[in-house]
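Handoff note, outgoing to incoming analyst
You'll be picking up this chain. Sequence as last confirmed:
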Amino acid sequence: MTALPDPRTVFETTGTDLDAARAMFEEAYGASGFLPERSERDFGYRFRSVGDATMSFRSTRYDARMVGEVASPDEFVVTWVGEGGGVVDVGRDEVALAPGRPVVFPNERPFRFDLADVRQNLVQIDRVFLERVAAEVHGTEPGTLVLDHAVPPGAEAVRAWNAQVQDAARIVLGSAPVSVLALAETARRTALALLSTFPHHVVARRFPIPTGASGRVRAAVEYMQAVAHTPITTTDVAEHVGLSVRGLQQAFQRQIGVAPNAVLRGIRLDRVRDELRAGSPAETTVASVAVQWGFAHLGRFSAAYARRFGEYPRDTLHS
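Most recent structure output, in case you need it:
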């Protein structure tokens, strides 16, 4: 009987060249502005990743200071250090990395880090997978999962997380053959442990993520969904995901063929429709709902609404 191929992917690299380390870590972590700086130690690095597209275990040794910016919108990452340390989310909601403390990376936006002489472990879980598990846990439709990286987990939660990581590591990192089913079950148990460990909430998606949106485009759409009720502009969205306005526009055109301001307008039109369908003509006016969602020119709003939904807003309200 022919043995099935091992579903795990293994990548490992090591070296003593500072420029090679910079290039490798920028690619592995989606980092930018990565500025390595020698410390008192003789420089050396090692990076290892084992797992599949749903979940992987990573380990890093880096004998130097590393500073840069990371964006990981397509995955959730929990990290802890066995040696060394530093700060995650520099200049914003700063969290110190210290031995024995698991920290989840900010996921909804890029963040800066400043680490030195670390022995670091990480668990990466695919974003779509974890959001589906969260929806099952909370009994909702899948939505945008937001983890609060700035709130430290309690001691009991950390113990439970560590126990699950140890169990998962025996399977993912073990030398014995592993089946696809075993990896899937391990990823699910680890996802449940992550959700139990870190405070989080789910933002319902009433506007679907456009097909093809990934990386910072996906993060931008999800940010628009979360704050469409505020007077944000595409300039605010671009700043949130770490791009220039032109860079944001180019990324949207390249990935989904739609301008970011059109996506934002579509989200707001959908929210208007939700409110009009839920309201009553005796208590709700089209004008008040339109203005609430940022549509100041009622004539242009009405025309845009009709193009999107095939009826005028007053018809939606009265139906």
